[in-house]
Design goal:
about 600 residues, mainly alpha, C8orf32 fold, disordered N terminus
Length: about 600
Amino acid sequence: MLTVTPMVRFPAGLVAVLLLLLFASAARADLITALPTDWFNRAPTPERIKQVCAAGDSTGWQPVSAHLYQGSLQAYELRQEAAAEQWYLLARWCEILGQSRHTLGQQWLAALSKAGGIHAGIDQRALHAWPDEPLASLLNAETLGWLLQNQAFSAVFFDLLAPTDCLPQAMTILQTLREADPRRFETYAQLALALALVYDAPPPPYWPHAQVSAAALPRRLPSPLEAFGFFVKLDQAGSGLHKLTTISAGELKFMVDLAAPFSELVWAQKSVRFSLVDLVKSYDSVRYRTDRIEERKYAWPGTSYALDEIRSEGGICVDQAYFATQSGKARGVPTLLFSGAGVDGRHAWFGYLGAGQKWIMDGGRYADQRYVTGEAHDPQSWGQLSDHELGFLSEGFRRLPPYRQSRQHQLFAELYLRLGKKPAAAAAARKAVQFERRNFDGWQLLLAAHVGALPAVREPLLREAAQALQRYPDLNAWFVRELAASLRARGETSVATFEERNLVRRGEQGGRSDLGVDQAVAQLAAAKPEARISTYLLVLKKYGVGSGIDFYDRVTRPLVNQLVSEKKLGEARQVVTQTRGAFNPTAASQFDLELKDLAATVR
């Protein structure tokens, strides 16, 4: 399930950089002389970019960044949006190039900790030992010049960059790949970027799934250079199912997250020969082991998790999904392993980038079980990624001119907001959502520019944003809940409740019973201890029907465990009994067996 964070990612340290504009100094005066203000009315030329590099080396990257941000705003206010965006991207590069590697490492650890992404594979001691040198010191002059001059690469880079990306490691990977073969790097720049953003941190121990031991599947990424060479060789030989130079890093990142070693990937290239149209058949090419389900052996029982052994031994759904995803990656296809909760049990399936660069999201997903939105790992952050979020991406509108124009205005809405210029930020954000109504960040910025405004101003904006994104339940739900909170805060309780119920109803009609479960979780968390049982029975009746084991996982089991820990066994038994009566799960199904286990725990 997608968790939408109510914030927009701004450039780290931007406020400090922009404050430099307020303080004149001799160095800054020299900088303004070196980089004249009349430059910014047109896009930066290669010669001017060289002068920016020279100024960064001599004066420092942060003052240069400050001046370029000012120049980009100048171009934007003259309605030279294309030129403004290019100067803005140069300013972003200068800002991060001047930041300390040590500081960036600490910021990354803090962001990772906040996201719950710290694990034993991350060498925190080594990060603390990083030197207090600028990020630019990791790049040679040729790589630095290429990055600053390649506007298309920079646009994708900053679109994808997130706080959970380790910039020093990503820059080191880019430098290594370009230094090895500059021509090949330029041809496969998007592939190089995908590797830099995925291989900047080791994967967690629960990736790609937790139902196999570390001994059978070591969970180690290969070296970036080896992975780059593997995919380039595949593409140049014409052996892949996609032409990799036509795919953006935003989708290639789902191809480079290799869990299987190269020897197994080569085996898959020779032995799993489905066409792109028939790639879904790779899932069922692994025989399903009903005996393991009957014996409740959900973890892989063997000592090796090699692809050929999975196919020869057979497996359960998660093994089928793993086999399909790794076989697809071996042939140059971005793939995802999904897991989700259905009526009577949990299931795993896979998605892949199909013909025409359209995502196929239901390889092995059984419609009769009505699985709610699946969850998958985003290899860039190793956090959770909803398949509906990927579906949002796969519509392809981000490749079209209206989105690029929307993105330009979004960038300057961010910049104005950081400078405290709310009216200008609101105007830019409004242009962003006019060019592309699906620009979720644009809507968030528009609301951020109206923080502190009267409900009569903010609530219509929330309704407008919810309407614009009504086809995307998770995104729509974020704005509806913000609207309900605003209504409730000013005493409009019945209207707020109506909005929430309407949200759940639309979710159920669209197969998103998890939205109702979200409401159940929230209501139970807010209930007083003496009202927990009555509240549970209420949400069971309102939101339980159709939600199956998802409701059990997120509402029933946590409540029963809490009651048992408090030695309130009578209440715990009542919850189990009422739950079984409400759902009446299929005999011997996973849901039925787990309810029996829970009842035994209570006894």
